[in-house]
Design brief:
Distance between the termini: 53 Å
Number of strands: 14
CATH class of the largest domain: Alpha Beta
Largest sheet: 7 strands, mixed
Strand order of the largest sheet: 2-8-7-6-5-3-4
Shape: globular
Helix content: 40-55%
Order of helices and strands: HEHHEHEHEHEHEHEEHHHEEEHEEEH
CATH superfamily of the largest domain: Type I PLP-dependent aspartate aminotransferase-like (Major domain)
Strand content: 5-15%
Number of helices: 13
Length: 401
């Protein structure tokens, strides 16, 4: 039979989804599984979002929508970014997509040719590397270990940008670490970026509504507005509005980049569905109290997770200030043996596999994010299940010797 395209040899299924699917399968088999694996916010949008969707169904014409996005959605996106301190844009600077993942794929395709270099920090969201590999890009990984709180330092960025990558990808707040850059830290990075005018900057900021401790949301454009001509900010409804399944992503940036995404949309998806568009407009333009309330709840969950992990030998965890993840360094447990199963814990994968098999707790090994000394915990489950899952992790660690 004819062969598949060569790029398919570089394509990988999501490592996060693989863990989530394993947890789902074990549940179906009757196991009591607590999943800290997949990054879903664990809440549903407010009632007004559903009401807008229902109203759209009543007046549905069945017609195609706009490749860029319906005008009222574009205006809602502009208002959203203005609330984030990113104002002065027009509809021509905006484009939409079927989730932020789709937007990132399109941006890599629009900005890069095969072989071009793209740079981003480690730990990274798994999809960054996966998309880059599929598209044949050269990846410059910038290691940011727990010892530096998983954050990119200016001197690292300087060395990377000196190699003239086509794209620099920043993620703030971070998935998988939950770390957030302060204004001072972002200003230091932006100062470096300003000295290298040949590099596009993509800011994946989809957790911007989930930032704790009063640290605030900071973007390179807040401190260096002149970067606007080559900076694209990506956002979505998934995390801050409890709408991952609605699949709405969007960008704001240079008009020529937005137009390129519109062209790709015309070939890939045509448009967002009209019902989804109506729900997106309602979420972005309507009351914002739900996001604020959930942000406070997540901060409390974060504190409980850190307290539990802080009591365990061999585990240390920098304090995240956003999103809904912790990313503990578990390397202090390597080289030990799990007494109950007899299995030797030599890696993050062995730790997570044995934890799932023995205690029924699913976490994602850090190697999926480029950091094999750690694992990711997504803590959006109900409080009772969170407490139970943390107790099981403590029981597991107590069995290591």
């Amino acid at each position: 039979m004819p062969s598949l395209a060569a790029r398919m040899a570089r394509a990988r299924p999501s490592a996060i989804m693989a863990v989530a699917e394993t947890a789902k399968r074990l549940k179906a088999e009757g196991r009591d599984i607590i999943s800290f694996s997949i990054g879903v916010p664990g809440f549903l949008p407010d009632r007004h979002v559903y009401e807008a969707a229902h109203a759209a169904l009543e007046r549905d014409s069945g017609a195609y929508g706009s490749n860029r996005g319906r005008e009222d959605l574009l205006d809602a996106i502009l208002g959203h970014f203005a609330r984030l301190g990113l104002s002065g844009y027009e509809r021509r600077h905006v484009a939409t997509s079927v989730g932020a993942k789709h937007m990132l794929y399109n941006l890599f395709e629009a900005l890069c040719d095969p072989g071009d270099r793209i740079a981003f920090a480690v730990p990274y969201w798994t999809t960054y590397l996966d998309i880059a590999d599929i598209q044949g890009l050269t990846v410059e990984l910038l290691p940011c270990p727990a010892e530096q709180d998983y954050k990119l330092r200016p001197e690292q960025l300087e060395a990377a940008l000196a190699k003239r990558p086509k794209v620099l990808l920043l993620n703030n707040p971070s998935n998988p670490t939950g770390m957030v850059y302060t204004r001072q830290e972002m200003a230091a990075l932006a100062e470096v970026i300003a000295r290298f005018p040949d590099t596009w900057v993509i800011c994946d900021d989809i957790y911007n509504g989930l930032i704790f401790d009063g640290i605030g949301y900071h973007n390179p454009l807040h401190v260096r507005p002149e970067l606007r001509e080559r900076t694209i900010v990506v956002d979505s409804l998934s995390k801050t509005y409890g709408m991952p399944g609605w699949r709405v992503g969007f960008m704001i940036g240079p008009a020529e980049v937005a137009e390129a995404i519109v062209k790709l949309n015309s070939n890939h998806i045509t448009s967002l569905p009209e019902v989804v568009t109506a729900a997106a407009v309602a979420a972005l333009s309507g009351p914002q109290e739900l996001t604020a309330r959930k942000c406070a709840e997540f901060a409390g969950k974060r504190d409980r997770v850190l307290a539990a992990l802080g009591a365990l030998p061999g585990i240390r965890c920098p304090r995240p200030q956003g999103a809904f993840y912790v990313f503990p360094d578990i390397s202090g447990c390597f080289g030990k043996r799990h007494r109950a199963s007899g299995r030797s814990i030599e890696s993050d994968v062995a730790f997570c596999e044995t934890l799932l098999a023995s205690e029924g707790v699913a976490c994602v090994p850090g190697s999926a994010f480029g950091e094999p000394r750690a694992m990711r915990i997504s803590y959006t489950v109900e409080d009772e299940r969170l407490a139970e899952g943390l107790a099981r992790i403590a029981s597991f660690v107590s069995e290591l010797g």
